[in-house]
Amino acid sequence: MAIWGQYGLQEGMSTIMELLNYFHDYMMTILLLILSFVTYVFIFVISSPRLDKYTVDSHVLETVWTIVPMFILLFMAFPSLYLLYLMEDVSSPSLTVKVVGHQWYWEYQYSNSWFNYSFDSYMVYEKTDSPLYHALDVDNRLVLPTMANILFLITSADVLHSWAVPTLGVKADAIPGRLNYVSTMTSYSGVYYGQCSEICGSNHSFMPIVLEFIPMSNYLDYVSNILVSE
């Protein structure tokens, strides 16, 4: 999750978010090299006592500064398109969870042939003895297994919302009457926080998202306990 004074991206806890972090660093490196080169050429031209007309009107030079940017754009485009393809890939999900946005809480539905269960998740307002993050903790966390490809189907029951968990690299608009989807997988157990990222009314700031990832064996015990209680 984000910490005070943080300027960079949050630490990636999913495969997609790790690749997004690498892609960000890759793009920043290319942009810094371009900026440095352009600055050097600009200073050189400004400080030069005279300009060579054969250099300025050189067809070879014009060809070079047309072809080189084209290859730079290709080096930038291919990783971007590959990453977009991975983000849209939802083949063979191990678990499907439907997320429904309401004013101002989230509803989660486990939608599988072997496990159907739904619950609401509200922000915790009152102070308790347990350590809680202000305006980020909820009464019912969404419990999910690690090392599993999870598909989220996202919609809304009233107005526009946006379901976003930055550390997992997932964000999708919740639109009434429309079903969006994102998928994720993480190998790290832990609790990950997010918030509604679309202004949806007076309590927009009080729609936190909390996902708790646990090992598969513990998750099966969690499911068994729910099935027994029902």
From TrEMBL:
PROSITE patterns: COX2, COX2_CUA, COX2_TM. One of its GO terms (cellular component) is mitochondrial inner membrane. Residues 1-91 form the Cytochrome oxidase subunit II transmembrane region profile domain. Residues 92-225 form the Cytochrome oxidase subunit II copper A binding domain. One of its GO terms (molecular function) is oxidoreductase activity. It is a multi-pass membrane protein. InterPro entries: CcO_II, CcO_II-like_C, Copper_CuA, Cupredoxin, Cyt_c_oxidase_su2, Cyt_c_oxidase_su2_TM_dom, Cyt_c_oxidase_su2_TM_sf. The keyword Repeat does not apply. Binds a copper A center. It is found in: Mitochondrion inner membrane. It catalyses: 4 Fe(II)-[cytochrome c] + O2 + 8 H(+)(in) = 4 Fe(III)-[cytochrome c] + 2 H2O + 4 H(+)(out). Its cofactor is Cu cation. Gene3D superfamilies: 1.10.287.90, Cupredoxins - blue copper proteins. The chain crosses the membrane at residues 26-46, 66-85. Keywords: Copper, Electron transport, Magnesium, Membrane, Metal-binding, Mitochondrion, Mitochondrion inner membrane, Respiratory chain, Translocase, Transmembrane, Transmembrane helix, Transport. The keyword Transmembrane applies. It comes from the Eukaryota. Pfam families: COX2 (PF00116), COX2_TM (PF02790). One of its GO terms (biological process) is ATP synthesis coupled electron transport. Belongs to the cytochrome c oxidase subunit 2 family. Component of the cytochrome c oxidase, the last enzyme in the mitochondrial electron transport chain which drives oxidative phosphorylation. The respiratory chain contains 3 multisubunit complexes succinate dehydrogenase (complex II, CII), ubiquinol-cytochrome c oxidoreductase (cytochrome b-c1 complex, complex III, CIII) and cytochrome c oxidase (complex IV, CIV), that cooperate to transfer electrons derived from NADH and succinate to molecular oxygen, creating an electrochemical gradient over the inner membrane that drives transmembrane transport and the ATP synthase. This is Cytochrome c oxidase subunit 2. It comes from Brachionus angularis. The lineage of its organism: Eukaryota, Metazoa, Spiralia, Gnathifera, Rotifera.
